[in-house]
Amino acid sequence: MPRISVVTAAYGPTATFLSDTIESVKAQALPPGWELEWVVQEDGPGPFLATKFDGVDFVRYEANEAQLGLAMTRNLALSRVTGDLVQVLDHDDVLLPDAFTTLIPRFATSSIHWAIGQADDLLPDGSRASFSSMLDHGVVPAGRVNEWAADNGGNWPVHCAGLMMRTATLRALGGWAASPADDDLAMFAALSEVVDGYNDPALTWLYRQHPNQTHKKQSWNSWSSVGRRIALQRAAAVRAAGLFAATSNASSVDGAAVEPPELGKLIPKENYPGR
């Protein structure tokens, strides 16, 4: 049975709206034959969010027990994903009920490796602000997103907090980049450079605006220009290397088709050939 894996990097001190996020995932409709898992990874040395997920049987929760940052926390969650597709969801955002039934069918075409729907801003007073997409709706050819970003001062026309992606492709590109800010842009720069995606016109999620958002912190803002530079450099390097996704043997949902060996079966480093 194909599976969609929601990935959330959580952090207790700023998880004020987590209850709304949980309810939005619980309300998700699924295409026939699909199942859901939610992989939650809590960052920080004193985790305390586990009880928030009591009674939610599709949640797989773990805690870092250390402050590792957003990118590392996301990648730790990714290491536990068992689904064919990954849906990114921050701990303060909201998925609308038809998000999965809207986006999952886009992956029936083997050339599509990422998809995203439109988002409204969810404002502190509960009202919503909508925005027109900066990309045409429909198939987005490989490289098109990064061309737009390069022409617009390192600003991307896709909000990575709402991405759905093939798990295998995300893993093949190394997951989220080890950047102090905009780790998702650096990831997406590589992804969207080598594969086609789909920009769906449907409204599928809400991006919450509030004072404690990570990207509103001074430390994040001071590193943002570096993160965006890394993303542009990564896109240019991928393009120059001539990398592209082979589609001749791709299936409609193959995100978790290649499973790693169990940890107990890994070859110890001291026994590697040639050591």
TrEMBL record:
SUPFAM superfamilies: Nucleotide-diphospho-sugar transferases. Residues 5-110 form the Glycosyltransferase 2-like domain. Transmembrane segments: none annotated. InterPro entries: Glyco_trans_2-like, Nucleotide-diphossugar_trans. It holds the Pfam family Glycos_transf_2. This is Glycosyltransferase family 2 protein. It comes from Saccharopolyspora taberi.
